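for the writeup, i need someone to sanity check this before i put it in the appendix. the sequnce is what the collaborator sent (i think, or maybe the updated version? ugh). structure was predicted straight from it, no edits. if anything looks off just tell me and ill rerun, i have time this weekend
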Amino acid sequence: MTISHRFVEANGIRMHLAEAGAGPVVLMCHGWPESWYSWRHQLEALAAAGYHAIAPDMRGYGQTDKPDAVDQYTMLHLAGDMVGVLDAIGAEQAVIVGHDWGAPLAWRSALFRPDRFKAVVGLSVPFQPIVANQPRPTTVMLTNEKQRFYQLYFQTPGVAEAELEKDVQTSIKTTLFALSGDAPVEDPASLAMLSIDGGWLDGKPQSQPAWLSDKHVQFYVAEFKRSGFKGGLNWYRVVDRNWELLRPWVGAKIQVPALYVVGDRDGVYKFPGMDQLIPNLKQFVPKLRETIVLKGCGHWTQQERAKEVNDAILQFLRGL
């Protein structure tokens, strides 16, 4: 199966798309620090099953434009990009799939535009409802005299970039291994807490997971050597701005069919509050068809367990 590439104008920026197949559109949104390439297994499986699978480099990544200003990375910009992709390819509707940061984007896109996104699949990150009394996110991120939540470290422009770009190969390999189900970590959620004066890479186990070959690592390394890490990190720097902008959707529920897939060795699955949110997800996503928990799987769901994720997505699509 051939994966083809093209550029489109979407929402005022130039976006790079990888795509395969023909048929109903499935639009896949990657997370950090990734690229369209994290969907390589799904592009082939969906195309073979009769779908038009599309995986963009998201705003700030790969060969897609990287606006300089932090305020150009809000959830409204990102959802606008996804609508723009559909417009650019002439598609009325799509099923939207997202992983990591792409999952909140997929959930929100389905919330904002159910007329364009007729169903949604979230990998790793569940839908987090917008509630009336929710505090500003950075004010409640965990911090103490010894440690801080990694997203607080990512807030200051230039700091995480300098650490990650110093040795891109080490940064990519360490991140992909440490957050995977293969990492020898007792509590995966603990990796989200960084030393108060340390960086993202400090103390994380380093190796190469079995599901990732040298060829795959080198693809990511080449992408981030060219693009840098700033664009992807800017997604984290607008969490408070997103909190402000999403107030109109307080209490709103996702009204399209949905599927949620997570690994039980994913740090997100172990974050505080997820033991309450995930079992009760149907309260906020009434048409949630299924929650699938993959045993022994870490954060990189669609790469670590490609066949299981492909099977789950295809079964969901056939049931629509």
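Strands lie at 4-10, 13-20, 25-29, 52-56, 94-99, 117-123, 147-149, 193-195, 258-263, 288-294. The chain has a mean pLDDT of 96.
thx in advance!!
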